[in-house]
Automatic annotation (TrEMBL):
Residues 29-71 form the ANTAR domain. It holds the Pfam family ANTAR. This is ANTAR domain-containing protein. Residues 1-21 are annotated as: Disordered. The lineage of its organism: Bacteria, Bacillati, Actinomycetota, Actinomycetes, Streptosporangiales.
């Protein structure tokens, strides 16, 4: 029997790879950009993060660069 308390950073297998500890390791600017995209598109943080990743892949740019442009209001991720 495991008596240790569950960590707040344990990954939820149903929430996707961006939950728990993995999400905490992302740079703050990517979190901020995902939050901005989530509010703009009225969606979840996970969906916003995936949209940022997709945009970065399709444009051939680094996710950090995309996040910087979103936070700096030089780029606006639109809904498909």
């Amino acid at each position: 029997m495991n008596t240790e308390p569950e960590s707040q950073f344990e990954a939820d297998p149903e929430a996707g790879a961006e939950s728990g500890f993995e999400q905490a390791l992302l740079p703050a600017q990517i979190h901020q950009a995902a939050g901005m995209v989530a509010v703009h598109l009225d969606t979840t943080i996970q969906d916003a993060y995936h949209r940022l990743e997709s945009y970065a892949r399709s444009s051939g740019r680094d996710l950090d660069d995309i996040a910087s442009d979103v936070v700096g209001r030089r780029l606006r991720i639109e809904s498909p």
